[in-house]
Every structure is written in C-alpha cells, then in structure tokens.
Amino acid sequence: MTIALAQVTNTANAIYTSSGNTAITSLTMCNWGPSQVYANLYVVPNGNTAGTTTIALSNVLIPSGETAQMYMFAEKLLLGPNDTVCANTSANTLTAITSYTSL
User: Fold this and answer.
1) Please, are residues 16 and 97 in contact by the beta-carbon 8 Å criterion?
2) Helix or strand holding residue 29 (H, E)
3) Of 41, 43, 76, whose CA–CA distance to 58 is shortest?
4) CA 42, CA 56: separation in Å to the nearest integer?
5) Is the backbone of residue 74 left (phi > 0), alpha (psi -120 to 50) or beta?
6) How far is CA 4 from CA 28, 36, 52, 63, 94, in A?
7) Domain total in the chain
8) What is the widest separation between alpha-carbon atoms in the chain?
9) 1: CB partners within 8 A, 6+ apart
10) Which domain holds residue 89?
11) Residues 6+ apart with CB under 8 A from 64
12) Which domain CATH number covers 13?
C-alpha cells in the first residue's frame, strides 16, 4: 500500500488522483488548527468536477486537534485512471492522508 498526503483548503481540490486502477483503503483528515472546521469530500470520475453531483460526505464537523476517518470500511473505494477524490474545508487547517493500493 501507498499513502498520499495533501493540504485541504477552502477550494475543492484533488487530494488524491488515481494513476491507474486503484483502491482506497482509508482516508483520514486531521484538523491541526485552533478551531473546529467543516469538511466536504467528493468522489469525482475522470472528466467531471467536484460539486453537488459528486459529493460523498457533506459538512463533516472536525473539532480542533481531532482526526476524522472519512473513509475506512470493509469495502474499498475503487477508482479508474484519473478519477479523483477532492475535498474542501471551512478553514485551511486540514491535512488529508489517503492510503491506496493498485489493482
């Protein structure tokens, strides 16, 4: 397995882009800032953009100093080439850690 690290900002940007057929095994977001934040997570097929039709988790509250497990289930999130996982937050104090493996 491999990990990808990304800073999450208030703009919905890619925190992970699949370079082939991959499976996400876990995705966490850590709020290292002094205040609580709200985060959104999008699963975006190649050629689409983050928005209301691709949102997977909406307004997840992450308290200051806490880590939220955004994705960690028995089933894996399967992605094709150039599919992305995007995120945004109400403050620029989130770090996203994505664990994935190639299929």
Assistant:
1) no
2) strand 22-31
3) 41
4) 5
5) alpha
6) 11, 24, 25, 23, 14
7) 1
8) 39
9) 25, 99, 100, 101
10) 2-102
11) 31, 33, 34, 35, 36
12) 2.60.120.220
Structure-block tokens of residue 102: 């190639």
First to last CA, the chain: 11
Tens-digit pLDDT string for the chain (103 aa): 799 999 999 999 999 999 999 999 999 999 999 999 999 999 999 999 999 999 999 999 999 999 999 877 677 899 999 999 999 999 999 999 999 999 9
The amino acid at residue 28 is: T
Q: Give the number of other CB atoms < 10 A from CB of residue 98.
A: 23
